[in-house]
Write a structure and sequence with these properties.
Elements: E1 3-9, E2 12-17, E3 21-25, E4 34-37, E5 40-45, E6 52-53, E7 60-81, E8 86-106, H1 113-125
Length: 126
């Protein structure tokens, strides 16, 4: 059964699964290099069972390979003010990185919820 995860990168959140190709905001590495996403918010299997929700993040790594660095479609930005003969037109092309998700690796749960509660109780006693 393959895993799915929600990762956060570039100020956006993406729902990913192994083998998927997606475009994210520019990553600073070269083509062919592997990168790791450590801001994983949610992990679950295809049936939607065994979901793990981060508070705010999980100790899960999503491994990806950079396929391409490119620029997105051009968008035009128009500024206009009525009755003052003011209008400006500029363009913008976002820098994008095309990545392929290779692996979603789970770490074993190291601390149970009851143990976690006991640890927080000890911290508050001090």
């Amino acid at each position: 059964m393959s895993l799915r995860a929600v990762i956060k990168t570039g100020g956006k959140q993406y729902l990913v699964k192994e083998g998927e190709i997606l475009e994210i905001e520019k990553a600073e590495d070269e083509v062919g290099k592997k990168i790791f996403f450590e801001d994983v918010l949610l992990v679950f299997n295809e049936k939607g069972e065994d979901a793990q929700i981060g508070q705010p993040n999980l100790k899960v790594k999503v491994e990806a390979e950079i396929l391409e660095q490119k620029r997105g479609k051009k968008i035009t930005v128009v500024k206009y003010k009525a009755k003052t003969r003011y209008h400006r037109r500029t363009g913008h092309r976002q820098l994008l990185t095309k990545v392929k998700i290779l692996k979603i690796s789970l770490e074993k749960k190291s601390v149970k919820v009851s143990e976690k509660k006991a640890l927080t109780d000890k911290k508050t006693e001090k």
